[in-house]
Predict the 3D structure of the following.
Amino acid sequence: MNFRDYHTIVINGTRLEGEGIIRYCESSAQDYLQQVGAFVREWLSISPGMEMRTSGSTGSPKLFWIEKNKMLQSAAMTARFFRFEEGQTALLALPVSYIAGKMMVVRAFLSGLNLICVPPSGNPLKDIPQNVQIDFAPLLPMQLTAVDDCPQIKKILLGGAPVEAVLEQKLQHFTPEIYHGYGMTETLSHVAIRNINGPNSSLTYRALEGITFDTDEHDCLIINAPFLDDEVFTNDVVELLSDTSFIWKGRADFVINSGGLKIFPEELERALSFLTRRFFFAGMPDERFGERVCLFIEGEPYNPERMIVLSDQLERSLDKYSRPRDIYFIPSFIQTASGKVNRRATVELARYNNTI
């Protein structure tokens, strides 16, 4: 595959080629289309690669160089998995400043997809007419929180953040096939996918073609991909089922060590599908146990009656070692630029404001 061979794309039904893509995007008053144009200008340049900034998923954010041909190889894996065909429609509702948006443009180049471009927002589907059929839509989980169903979409790929338990339960009743991808900037988007709804729904992530997995001494995932020069070492603790499948347990840097027990906040969060507000678990310093499990809930404190109900729900959902010793209500969680809850910053702000 040679990136120089891919210079034709269809955007919102208009077939464009080469510099014509850039002129079309730059003539738009919409910032998101201008971002597409800036990326395409870089793609069409003679340089064999481009510079990208990682999200910090595997450490401190850093710049790295990626070859365009390797981006095509990654796009081809996705195309084979989802069986893309020329002329199919694909939604671009993610900013092209991040890897997921960039790769969607590359997939459109490679597979001849018609990109339906809309402004990235918390609910990008609200302005899409019901009669517009979309074959494939990569979205952030939070972009589906305000949606009851989207029957005009055939397949949805979620990524960028874990799917919260309450949302995953809601998605069981959605019409489209919904998947969750595991990946990061360093792996050029997803390298493994699990089914969220339907008869094949599972917590098990399965590798895309050619990808293999291993773990280090701390059970953190190691990724081997044919289009990457080196292995990618992650901070994600997994249960490795085989060299091509795993169950994600949580982030190593979020693990709560309470009395010698390793407790994964993300596993506890999956058990609390009854909470409708945003929430997360985190460890707080404890003289006796080292750390104690604490629950952080966004919004105003519950009234006494609701607290009694919550206490009963927690007792039925979690074992005695995992139940929160303290529950804190935070008016508004801090988010990262990509829409994830910034747990550390939220806890630190609460400490600074004497909320905890």
